[in-house]
Design brief:
- The chain is 32% helix and 22% strand.
- It folds into 2 domains: 4-132, Response regulator (Rossmann fold, 3-Layer(aba) Sandwich), CATH 3.40.50.2300; 147-352, Methylesterase CheB, C-terminal domain (Rossmann fold, 3-Layer(aba) Sandwich), CATH 3.40.50.
- α2 runs parallel beside α3 (64-74), α4 crosses α6 and α6 (171-179) packs across α11.
- The chain has 11 helices and 15 strands.
- By secondary structure, the protein is an alpha/beta fold.
- It catalyses: [protein]-L-glutamate 5-O-methyl ester + H2O = L-glutamyl-[protein] + methanol + H(+); L-glutaminyl-[protein] + H2O = L-glutamyl-[protein] + NH4(+).
- InterPro entries: CheB-like, CheB_C, CheY-like_superfamily, Sig_transdc_resp-reg_Me-estase, Sig_transdc_resp-reg_receiver.
Length: 358
């Protein structure tokens, strides 16, 4: 297989040079061109036909968001955004994910990051992964059936329900599809781990909250989880759940990353496995790697009634995390992202619940 052809778009000549050098240092990648803004980038795409594009979020003449909208309409291809760590940069980056960007890299020290080599491995990994990703375009999935791959456990007579979701690459857009369909009266709190650095999860929570009937917020230390609220793990912190009497409480920790991730889906699932008298519904969605599989194994050992949904290959941007859980035999149902909210609701709702899918 030939090298992955990359187009680098950034308004700083210095940054274009650094990004190009870092990418070219990996023998799987070839930088075939550079562009100084979104308009220039669009012209280069039609001429050079790259496999992947890296693009700065904030640029003059045509910024990353405006360019991304046009790219997705005219020349859909995988785009990895580069963002500053400012609040505006984070908001624009989360918006870019919802428009179809595959992933993003946070520049370590602002728009001109002399120390970009700190994130060299992450940049290379994300560009390589983007090259083999599917663009998550809703129209691609014609059927939205919920496929049974194992008999679902009987719903127990627990005091509480809890929904726990793990996702990574492609997750912001997938979460918009799932959380945007959950009702405000959902009889369960929802906890979410989305792999993301510090500074971006608040923007993600705010955007999802503005697009959803259900309330969405970043999880806070020691807060009691309430039904009808989605809690997103803050970047850089593990989110674990503990019990006090009949209450479920969020604990944020700075324990070591698990397999490179903090927040980690495995760590959240592992903490949930110690809960008693709680009926748990887990969801593993699009993402690289296998985060969530080990935690789900522990949970199933301790909580035999846990019910597990995986996103199908057809709608995943990267079919890694759900595939690992499916291959380990840990899932009950597999469905396209469009049907996940419905699968969650049917499990939580005792009347329509699991009997339908025995």
């Amino acid at each position: 297989m030939g090298k992955i052809r990359v187009l680098v778009v950034d308004d700083s000549a210095f940054m274009r040079k650094i990004i190009s050098d870092l990418l070219s240092s990996d023998d799987r990648l070839e930088v075939i061109g550079t562009a100084r803004n979104g308009k220039d980038g669009l012209e280069q795409i039609s001429q050079l036909k790259p496999d992947v594009m890296t693009m700065d979020v904030e640029m003059p003449i045509m910024n990353g968001l405006d360019a991304l909208k046009q790219i997705m309409q005219k020349h859909p291809l995988p785009v990895v955004m580069l963002s500053s760590l400012t609040k505006q940069g984070a908001d624009m980056t989360i918006h870019a994910m919802s428009l179809g960007a595959v992933d993003f890299i946070a520049k370590p020290s602002g728009s001109i990051s002399l120390d970009l080599d700190k994130v060299r491995d992450e940049l290379v990994m994300k560009v390589v992964a983007a090259a083999s990703s599917r663009l998550s375009i809703r129209e691609q999935v014609k059927t939205a059936e919920i496929k049974v791959i194992a008999k679902a456990p009987e719903k127990n007579s627990a005091d509480r329900n809890l929904v726990a979701i793990g996702t990574s690459t492609g997750g912001p857009r997938a979460l918009q599809e799932v959380i945007g369909k959950l009702p405000s009266a959902l009889a369960a709190p929802v906890v979410v781990v989305q792999h993301m650095p510090v500074g971006f999860t608040r923007s993600l929570a705010e955007r999802l909250d503005s697009l959803s009937a259900i309330k969405v917020k970043e999880a806070e230390q020691n807060e009691t989880l309430r039904n009808g609220v989605v809690y997103i793990a803050p970047g850089g912190h593990h989110l674990t759940i503990v019990q006090a009497d009949s209450r479920l409480i969020a604990k944020l920790t700075l324990e070591d990353p698990v397999k490179g991730h903090r927040p980690s889906v495995d760590r959240m699932f592992e903490s949930i496995s110690s809960l008693v008298n709680v009926d748990v519904c887990t969801v593993i969605m699009t993402g690289m790697g296998s985060d969530g599989t080990e935690g789900l194994k522990k949970m199933k050992t301790k909580l035999p009634s846990v019910y597990s949904i995986g996103e199908s290959a057809e709608s995943c941007v990267v079919y890694g995390m759900p595939r690992a859980a499916a291959e380990a035999g840990l899932l009950h149902h597999v469905c396209a992202v469009q049907s996940i909210a419905s699968a969650i609701q049917q499990r939580i709702n005792l009347l329509e619940g699991v009997n339908k899918w025995k």
